[in-house]
Amino acid sequence: MLTPKKTYQQQDTYPPMSDLSDLLRNVFGFDGFRSGQQEIVETVIRGDNVLAIMPTGGGKSLCFQLPALARQGVVLVISPLIALMRDQVRGLQSVGVVAGALTSANTDAETQYVYDGLENGSLKLLYLAPERLGSSSTFALLRRYNISMIAVDEAHCVSQWGHDFRPDYLKIGELRRTLGVPLSAFTATADAETRDEIVERLFDGVPPVTFLRGFDRPNIHLAFAIKDNPRKQILEFADARKGQSGIVYCATRAKTESLAKALEDSGHNACFYHGGMDPDDRRHVEARFAKEDGLIVVATVAFGMGVDKPDIRWVAHADLPKSIEAYYQEIGRAGRDGAPAETFTLYGAEDIRLRRTQIDEGLAPADRRMADHGRLNALLGLSEALECRRKTLLAYFGETTEACGKCDLCDAPVETFDGTQNVRMALSAILRTQESFGAGHLIDILTGKATDKVRARGHEDLPTFGVGRALSTHQWNAVFRQMMGHDLIRPDRERHGALRMTDAALPILRDEQKITLRMDSIRSARQTPKVKTLVSEEDAPLLSALKAKRRALAEAADVPAYIVFNDKTLIEMAQERPQTLDDMARISGVGAKKLATYGAEFLSVITGAADRVHPTRRKIAGRSEASLYDQLLEAQADLARGRDGTEKPLSCSASLLAKVAQMRPRDHRALERILGERRAERFGQAFLDVVSQAG
User: Which of 26, 156, 307, 581 is the most buried (most CB within 10 A)?
Assistant: First the structure.
């Protein structure tokens, strides 16, 4: 963690940890912070400038949402997409937080709600897109109200090195200076160049307090496979996860449409999404994905940062992503609720050629193209990894870890072989043909196929003709693909994709270095995916019933299903089977507002019994006063007709009992002020004994 130069007036006091824990439990329904959150939250509340790099799904939003409740004034949140803002606002409002967004998609009522909240001081979080900062009226508006802090979501967008550069993010630094308030910037992926540019653009080069949290997402299973009838592979993967929400990323718009149709024809609820669609059609898909359980969206990367659905159970890539950062961001959209999620990435030699060509034909300067090749190399290294994929992925981000046990290579370790001799044969063929041909022609030479093209160029007379007959064409294709993966050869755009040798191959060609290749790539053995379930066979029927209840409540309220409860919460309900509202309150994700709104509905599904709990008792379920309330109720029942059972019946209302449980009076006079003289006389001593014993 870097030590910052303190630029802004800091908040002298902030809530003690116990108060933050209460907010965390009662508002958001969490018993504790995730790893790395607490220190960030406390630093933000204190008023320091902060840069936090946290894994996608690692709980970045809470790191500015919780401080907004603990600090005075309004926290301004700069967020890149309307859909993302609306999702977060909806989620906050569902737990009782006054939050709003000013966007072009607002209704008049939504806009009025925001202005009313600003005027009366109730609004805690205001979301804006960076594009609104281009208007001087926005600056004037924000100066009028008590903006106490700026939070920047997806902060890598400020950087030319970040893969989602948005020039309007550059105005945020000016806004920070204008308002004179602290700023917290959050992102999931930021390499050294991106971090440096964020500090320069947002903090005028003065280092903020920087948190570089782990990139690991242990709930996500990682898997890669070589393309071998890719449409069938994707269909088989989806079939094994029937009814689960997923995303399939494709390299082209046309493929999104054809693959979505293939999924629909196979009985899946699927649709496509790409940048060439009408904006209204794109918004319709976004709304469907947010609200529908089990929908699969087949998309280009246009379906990106706006995806904030926490219960996406899997992400598949029908084509190799552009870089390792893009891969990390895209798989990070799965399992944001912390429940198990899966990824599946297909790749082949054509993918590698395409990505190399896209980099070389781009308009970026030479140093940027070199860096992009490096990022692609890292992804190819992950694709052809020989040991734990998570270990390989995290090593790229500078982290070390043991084998995870949660990836395809840990599930079934690969067999390897010394591929040095085969690689030297291939390199020799490339050099003896003046680096002018693609893999197909080179493989014909190596396997001794005297095609017309080979004979026309006299290549049957080369020393390398037929030296590789021990391998089939399919196997040689695997060797060439792995060579591209190791960046030993690259397609040359000046020679229409002909393969040329890189400097990295020289030590192997000179027999100064060995290279290990994967045997499974050579043999191309492929297994049908096993059916994946979220819970045990015993708990599966209850989870289905809970999802059906969630769907009905979400449709009635016209909100996404996860706004009611996310998958992780329902999974815990199905496994723990709470029998009372107090038990329900201990389920992760069930805060006070959601317990009061939905608790009884879901409890009735679990227990099969109608809710008979008094509404007042329901409101305090799960809190410390709940148990005290129950004891007071029991003491009252014993004295309802007096100590000898002959007096006129008398009782306290539920609200009076709740008030005693909350205020915990210590003497008769304090109790009499709550209950009145007559009830205090009947129940006073018994109630005081209960309170005293409760401590």
Answer: 156
